[in-house]
Backbone:
């Protein structure tokens, strides 16, 4: 809507409603200072310097240009909190089921196993209520005597493993959790408890801000291109409007020296360097991450242990390069406190050090001792990128714990007098190293850990992998990989070597060789892998194991209703087996529901409505899903707080369907059930000529709409129009100059050949149609290079590239 200026009758202004302004994503301080007019329904003009409002009649669009300095941070796949969508209320039930049958050749034993786990729950506004379950059924029978029940054993169990609820607190960038939870801490070792917590949710931060990263700020005197590079390689490039800018999404994985180049449209160029490093222990300057919790510890059987506890932790970016962090955890007999500091050492990497002290008062004899026990644990962490070698080494540990140091879990075990103490940590070293020699097609990866204990022998685990990608004659993209490994657990050691080779056979298939050598048994296999389509692939392997032949096959299909994996194995003289795995779920809301595949139990999902049209293919992440008989489909495993996009595959629409809107977007909070509706019409398609009573034609660009105000065609020269989604006897209106001008009626029945050209009289209307029938002017918001239309957004606005 537009209104005339009170001071100058020659000026008109667009009425920017509070809902539209809220969707712009203005910074909180700026949004609170805005003034309104026309009974607080329209934004008072002239308050934001540099903001421009233009009307584009040719596109029925309202264009808004907003200086970046006024806006909250956004990126190509992330929106500020003002655009987050809590979704709609509804019920969910997700599951993962596995079934396997096995016949042992020696002894004739048959075994059958069915196991499953899942989540059921409900969404009510911003609240998420969940319950997790798990179940197992096992049956084993010896075939020596099928009638002898003593040769048959059966076991089964069903458990509700966790009851919990949570909701997002966007204003605090935090998450409130209630019920049964696991303590996920950056400082203390975790344990199960029932209670409540409020914690900073890193998921709410932009993807590249989840950790330490530098700010790059400056001032553009005109519209400018900002380029951030490292050793000649462009890491980030964007357009900014005139005015101050601040770039915060360089990424916590980027370190070393960054080169910044600002190219103005007026020809001026600014260049400067920024030196930084990144690691998990460091926090951005001025940023605080925190977690507070309280409750009672409990075991897997929902039985509480110990007394009431409370705790908290925080990390504060004191100054650029320095971070302080610490925390405390305590109940009546156990207290633990930690303090640490992290430092960005620029070209020398990043370093963090912390110390944790525990105090325990045991009032009975136990394997841990009796009385008061005090101990300390010291931890050093280091990270460094070697830019010149295109590699990264992380030394995330040295950790030393004194003999009397105890975690909360160890204290809970000690409170049970019949528990013996095992695995009392002393020292731990970990090294992760990854290097890629791109020119040579070589990559090397090492993961190494060494642990010593006060009460048992040391353990050493490692995984070393060497990969080489190469071409041989006309065969390209061959690969060979060698992996050496060693793992120790509970006095058992598994070590060996694995060799893998892959040769492309076609665009969608490869021939592979896999050899395993080490403890256990040696085996060699030749395999064939083929991807049938985006949803289905299979692999067949034949080979030998300990001089016995083996054959196995695997098929995976990402279906609309579930993800299905099938497997079959035969090992000569040993066993034969078959298995099936299903992963899926059901979502039900007041708008409808659907069965669907899912991998993230109880996670975020998007309910798609295709206007009641069945078999409409919708793509988002992974293989497409198809709408059910009610025109509904669910896209599961949606990323929390990301700008997710779903779109119709126009090339595979049903013959009688046409999509007038094929793309929707949603930025959903964790666990939300989003809801988006596509504009899809169903019916036949035809070529027609529209003619007015006086023999003339509707003007070029006139719109043909059905009773539901869906556009079914646009008039071309001399009244020619391609109509989609039409039905016999249907009445349609033709719009131009902002109103409905005439009406057409389709014949009943429709002719057999609709593409020979229908001649449709268009009876003119003498009055203007109501405003509700006029084509809507869609506001388009431009932020840098971004355009946003309200029809694609959860709050009547969203961003599109």
Residues:
């Amino acid at each position: 809507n537009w209104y005339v200026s009170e001071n100058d009758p020659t000026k008109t202004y667009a009425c920017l409603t509070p809902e539209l302004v809220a969707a712009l994503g203005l910074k909180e301080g700026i949004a609170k200072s805005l003034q309104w007019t026309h009974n607080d329904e329209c934004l008072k003009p002239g308050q934001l310097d540099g903001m421009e409002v233009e009307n584009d009649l040719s596109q029925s669009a309202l264009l808004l240009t907003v200086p970046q300095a006024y806006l909250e941070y956004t990126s190509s796949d992330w929106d500020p909190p003002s655009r987050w969508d809590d979704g709609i209320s509804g019920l969910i039930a997700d599951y993962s089921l596995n079934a396997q049958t096995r016949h042992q050749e020696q002894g004739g034993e048959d075994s059958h196993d069915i196991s499953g786990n899942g989540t059921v729950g409900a969404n009510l506004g911003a609240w998420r209520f969940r319950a997790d379950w798990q179940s197992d059924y096992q049956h084993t029978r010896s075939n020596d005597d099928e009638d002898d029940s003593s040769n048959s054993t059966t076991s089964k169990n069903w458990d509700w493993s966790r009851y919990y609820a949570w909701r997002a607190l966007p204003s605090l960038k935090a998450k409130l959790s209630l019920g049964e939870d696991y303590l996920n801490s950056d400082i203390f070792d975790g344990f199960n408890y029932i209670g409540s917590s409020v914690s900073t949710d890193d998921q709410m931060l932009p993807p590249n801000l989840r950790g330490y990263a530098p700010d790059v700020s400056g001032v553009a005197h005109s519209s400018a291109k900002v380029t951030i590079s490292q050793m000649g390689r462009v890491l980030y490039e964007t357009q900014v409007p005139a005015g101050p800018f601040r770039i915060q999404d360089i990424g916590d994985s980027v370190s070393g020296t960054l080169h910044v180049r600002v190219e103005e449209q007026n020809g001026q160029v600014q260049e400067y360097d920024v030196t930084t490093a990144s690691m998990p222990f460091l926090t951005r300057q001025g940023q605080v991450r925190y977690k507070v919790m309280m409750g009672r510890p409990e075991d897997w059987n929902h039985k509480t242990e110990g007394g009431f506890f409370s705790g908290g932790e925080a990390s504060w970016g004191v100054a650029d390069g320095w971070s302080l962090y610490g925390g405390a955890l305590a109940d009546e007999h156990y207290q633990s406190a930690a303090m640490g500091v992290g430092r960005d050492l620029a070209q020398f990497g990043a370093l963090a050090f912390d110390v944790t002290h525990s105090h325990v008062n045991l009032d009975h004899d136990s394997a841990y001792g009796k009385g008061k026990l005090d101990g300390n644990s010291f931890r050093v962490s280091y990270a460094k990128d070697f830019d010149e070698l295109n590699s990264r080494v992380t030394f995330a540990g040295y950790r030393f714990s004194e003999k009397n140091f105890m975690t909360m879990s160890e204290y809970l075990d000690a409170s049970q007098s019949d528990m013996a103490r095992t695995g009392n940590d002393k020292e731990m070293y970990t090294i992760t190293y990854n290097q890629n020699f791109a020119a040579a097609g070589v990559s090397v990866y090492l993961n190494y850990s060494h642990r010593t204990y006060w009460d048992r022998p040391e353990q050493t685990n490692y995984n070393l992998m060497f990969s080489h990608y190469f071409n041989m004659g006309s065969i390209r993209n061959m690969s060979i990989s060698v992996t050496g490994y060693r793992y120790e657990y509970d006095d058992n050691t598994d070590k060996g070597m694995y060799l893998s080779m892959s040769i492309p056979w076609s665009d969608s298939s490869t021939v592979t060789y896999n050899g395993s050598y080490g403890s256990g048994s040696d085996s060699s296999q030749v395999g064939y892998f083929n991807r049938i389509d985006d949803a289905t692939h299979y692999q067949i392997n034949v080979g030998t194991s300990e001089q016995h032949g083996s054959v196995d096959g695997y098929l995976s299909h990402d279906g609309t209703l579930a993800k299905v994996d099938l497997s079959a194995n035969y090992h000569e003289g040993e066993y034969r087996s078959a298995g099936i795995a299903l992963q899926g779920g059901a979502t039900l809301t007041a708008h409808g529901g659907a069965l669907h595949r899912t991998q993230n139990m109880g996670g975020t999902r998007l309910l798609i409505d295709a206007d009641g049209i069945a078999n409409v293919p919708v793509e988002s992440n992974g293989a497409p899903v198809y709408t059910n008989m009610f025109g509904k489909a669910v896209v599961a495993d949606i990323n929390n707080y990301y700008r997710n996009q779903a779109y119709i595959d126009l090339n595979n629409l049903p013959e009688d369907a046409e999509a007038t809107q094929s793309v929707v977007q949603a930025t959903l909070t964790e666990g939300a059930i989003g809801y988006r509706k596509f504009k899809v019409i169903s019916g036949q398609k035809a070529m027609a000529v529209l003619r007015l009573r006086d023999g003339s034609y509707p003007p070029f660009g006139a719109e043909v709409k059905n009773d539901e105000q869906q556009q079914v065609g646009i008039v071309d020269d001399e009244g020619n129009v391609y109509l989609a989604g039409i039905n016999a006897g249907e009445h349609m209106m033709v719009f131009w100059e902002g109103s409905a001008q005439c009406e057409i009626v389709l014949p009943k029945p429709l002719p057999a050949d609709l593409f020979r050209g229908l001649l449709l009289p268009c009876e003119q209307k003498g009055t203007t149609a109501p405003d509700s029938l006029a084509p809507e002017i869609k506001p388009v918001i431009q932020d840098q290079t971004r355009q946003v239309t309200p029809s694609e957004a959860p709050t009547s606005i969203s961003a599109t590239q």
About this structure: The domain at 585-681 is CATH 2.60.40.2610 (Immunoglobulin-like).
